[in-house]
Amino acid sequence: MCEEGKIIAAIVDIVSQVITPAIAEPFELVSVEYEKMGKDQVLSILVDKPGGITVEDTAELTEIISPLLDAIEPDPFPDRYMLEVSSPGLERPLKTAESLTNAIGQYVNISLYQAIDKVKHFEGDLVAFDGETLTITYRDKTSQKTIDIPYQMVAKARLAVKL
């Protein structure tokens, strides 16, 4: 991992540890991301709840989260950043084993670190996940196929919208 990647991973880890206890039920912390968008650094906090997130929810959570971030010592942020608290949307990231387990039966997009049979991206129905292996059924041209993907090969996973 490059130096910048290590810094980003450290920031995400610190922020996650600080804000997780403050995000109470019915809210669920889905993801923390720190990335450059245009000229700005953006700290994105994705939060969800049953029935979805409202604008009022994001405002309330921003008021809870912002002072917690300002209180982190030493300041982990190398640059000024914008805080964005939002819903994960329809294509919610699936970053944990628990989120993948909860997504069984749903349509997903999976990106791999290494290709399986020359393919690095799969989109289909997640039919099973046992903590070690994801089983996905997907369309390959005109046929329906099933593939087992080792969990450690998954680079990114998210819900997908079936078109």
TrEMBL record:
<dbReference type="InterPro" id="IPR028989">
    <property type="entry name" value="RimP_N"/>
</dbReference>
<feature type="domain" description="Ribosome maturation factor RimP N-terminal">
    <location>
        <begin position="19"/>
        <end position="91"/>
    </location>
</feature>
<dbReference type="GO" id="GO:0006412">
    <property type="term" value="P:translation"/>
</dbReference>
<dbReference type="GO" id="GO:0000028">
    <property type="term" value="P:ribosomal small subunit assembly"/>
</dbReference>
<dbReference type="Pfam" id="PF02576">
    <property type="entry name" value="RimP_N"/>
</dbReference>
<dbReference type="InterPro" id="IPR028998">
    <property type="entry name" value="RimP_C"/>
</dbReference>
<comment type="similarity">
    <text>Belongs to the RimP family.</text>
</comment>
<feature type="domain" description="Ribosome maturation factor RimP C-terminal">
    <location>
        <begin position="94"/>
        <end position="162"/>
    </location>
</feature>
<dbReference type="InterPro" id="IPR035956">
    <property type="entry name" value="RimP_N_sf"/>
</dbReference>
<keyword id="KW-0963">Cytoplasm</keyword>
<keyword id="KW-0690">Ribosome biogenesis</keyword>
<comment type="function">
    <text>Required for maturation of 30S ribosomal subunits.</text>
</comment>
<dbReference type="GO" id="GO:0005829">
    <property type="term" value="C:cytosol"/>
</dbReference>
<dbReference type="InterPro" id="IPR003728">
    <property type="entry name" value="Ribosome_maturation_RimP"/>
</dbReference>
<protein>
    <recommendedName>
        <fullName>Ribosome maturation factor RimP</fullName>
    </recommendedName>
</protein>
<dbReference type="InterPro" id="IPR036847">
    <property type="entry name" value="RimP_C_sf"/>
</dbReference>
<dbReference type="Pfam" id="PF17384">
    <property type="entry name" value="DUF150_C"/>
</dbReference>
